[in-house]
Amino acid sequence: MTVAVETGLWQLDATASTVGIRHKTMWGLVTVKGGFGALGGTGEVRPDGSAVGTLTIDVASLDTGSAKRDTHLRSADFFDTDHHPEITFAARSAELRDSDQVHVVGRLTVRGISRPLSLTARLTEGDAPGLTLDTEFSVDRDQFGLGSNQLGMIRGRTTVTAALRFVRATG
């Protein structure tokens, strides 16, 4: 599929977008899954075809299906939402390659700690009214100060999945 994406400003359609996480816990025996319910973002496709943008996630909107666990994840042990209410990803460059593969280079900020992050997304839909990017990548929690690890139960990397729908910005 070769897609020509229109230049200009794009807005994240939060109702048609998802960001989820998966992490093995209990010494790798249990996989905890969750999703963030409140997202925002913008992007700009430049005349040369490259793109930049920002995705913002409201950390307090994380839902793992367990209110007790979600409260703990919002605490200072993990995301510390009182001091760091948002996770942001600032895409410094995004280039369409191989017809539907988008190479993205940017910075991920969690708990006020920013780290470089490169990933590949797939352009699954691209037309005049909108475009959709799907990606899956993993992050090391320890790099962002998310090191709470009682009895060694939580180790390894967290997998992040995202399906992001962008529509033409109006006004």
Architecture blueprint of SSEs:
Blueprint: E1 8-12, E2 18-25, E3 30-36, E4 39-45, E5 51-58, E6 62-63, H1 67-74, E7 86-97, E8 101-110, E9 113-126, E10 130-140, E11 157-168
Antiparallel strand pairs: 1-4, 1-11, 2-3, 2-11, 3-6, 4-5, 5-7, 7-8, 8-9, 9-10, 10-11
Organism: Streptomyces violaceus (Streptomyces venezuelae)
Family: Belongs to the UPF0312 family.
Protein name: YceI family protein
In short:
With 171 residues, the protein is mainly beta.
Please explain how this structure is put together.
Helix content is 5%, strand content 56%. It is mainly beta and 171 residues long. The protein has an 8-stranded antiparallel beta barrel with strand order 1-4-5-7-8-9-10-11. The longest helix is centred in the middle third of the chain and has 8 residues, at 67-74. The chain starts with 7 loop residues before the first strand and ends with a strand. Residues 9-167 form the Lipid/polyisoprenoid-binding YceI-like domain. Belongs to the UPF0312 family. It comes from Streptomyces violaceus (Streptomyces venezuelae).
Spatial order of the strands forming the largest sheet: 1-4-5-7-8-9-10-11
Order of helices and strands: EEEEEEHEEEEE
Number of helices: 1
Can you summarize the main beta sheet?
A: 8 strands, antiparallel, barrel
Task: Give the averaged pLDDT, no decimals.
Answer: 86
Our measurement of the CA-to-CA distance between the termini, rounded to an integer number of angstroms, reads: 30 Å
Please state the CA-atom Rg, rounded to the nearest Å: 17 Å
Task: Give the overall shape, derived from the CA principal axes.
Answer: elongated
